[in-house]
Amino acid sequence: MIKYPMQKEFNGCVSRIDKNNKKFTAELISNDDEACILEGEFSESVLSEDDKKLLRVGALFVWKMGKEEKNGTQRKISQITFKRSCWSEQDIKMAEEIGKKRAAAIRALCEKKE
Fold first, then answer.
1. Backbone phi, then psi, for 46, in 5-degree steps?
2. pTM tops 0.90
3. 68 with 95, same domain?
4. Helix (H, G, I), strand (E, B) or coil at 6
5. How far apart are CA 33 and CA 27, in angstroms?
6. I need a surface site. Which of 54, 87, 105, 113 has the fewest CB within 10 A?
């Protein structure tokens, strides 16, 4: 049986990526204290292969850390999981096309007023 006697959770947003040193920096907001905003630096090596594919500036993730107890033995845990989008590529392309058409219509309206 696994028990989680102590756990802390943060919501993170990637702010910088250092590809040379394989690190990234993120703003972190504590789930239990929204006034607590921190900045953290992480090695890409802590990410799963699937999560490495999602690493980009602006990407959102959850960072869980704490202690885990299994069969009387405690160990520290730290896990980062990036949020997955439920939008398909087709949905994104369609949204981009709609956005381009609306932007063009707004530009045309602004040009008429001048």
1. -80, -5
2. no
3. no
4. strand
5. 14
6. 113
| Cα torsion 54, 60, 66, 67: sign | negative
Tell me the CATH number at 40: 2.40.50
Residues 58 and 106 in one domain: no
Q: Per residue of the chain (114 residues), what is the pLDDT tens digit?
A: 455 556 888 889 999 999 999 999 999 988 776 667 889 999 999 999 999 999 999 899 999 888 877 888 888 888 999 988 766 777 778 888 888 888 888 888 888 766
Q: Please give the structure tokens belonging to residue 53.
A: 């594919």
Task: State the total domains in the chain.
Answer: 2
Q: Are residues 73 and 92 in the same domain?
A: no
Whether residues 66 and 98 share a domain: the answer is no
Where would I find the beta strands (DSSP E) of the chain? 2-18, 23-30, 33-43, 60-70, 73-82
Strand partners, 21: none
62 and 103: one domain? no
Identify the domain containing residue 95 by its residue range.
Answer: 87-114
